[in-house]
Specification:
It contains five helices and eight strands. It is an alpha+beta fold. Strands 1, 2, 3, 4, 5, 6, 7 and 8 form an eight-stranded antiparallel beta sheet that branches. α4 crosses α5. The longest helix is centred in the middle third of the chain and has 16 residues.
Amino acid sequence: MYTPKAFGVDDDGAWNLVRDAGAGFFVRAAPEGLRSVFAPVVVSPDATLLRAHVARANDFWRDLDDTPVEVIILFLAASAYVSPSLYPSRENAPDVVPTWNYGAAEVRGTMRVRDDDDWKHQQVVSLTNHFEAPRARPWRVEDLDPGYLARQLRAIVGLEVAITSIEGKEKFSQNRPEVDRRAVREDFTHGSLRERDVARRMQP
């Protein structure tokens, strides 16, 4: 990931971006070229393992055996177009161009397939509990009929990634004069859902 110094974040900031995104694009090499899949994830408390699952019918995992393979997982936590018309400074410095503000993270590691029912059951429970936690009345995997749950577990395959690195980037107009940054934040505060999400991350 190309990350100029002004846009870099530390590992804690990068993991916050992963948690905010919730799901990411897994990309790996396959015999016919690159393969990708989009999946929600859970990260171990010590940030050494990342777990997910995909549909058994998905070809993403088909040619894999017990040998770990390299994978990159891309997370986008916030994203919005920035028009030069928002920059007050262009009255004195008109040479400006459009850009894009975003918060993103890149996780690298070695991935292997996990296809045992106990592992998949634990992963589904932890994933569900993680995303249901903010709800007033969380839905629980334990409420499912055991037979139905067993059929659902047979229809998925687990992915476990041993994490080797993470890099985060928050490009939120830090390279612009403060007057421009304030103007972008103010405009985005009243904009679309995506723009409001970016504005929330553009600290005063």
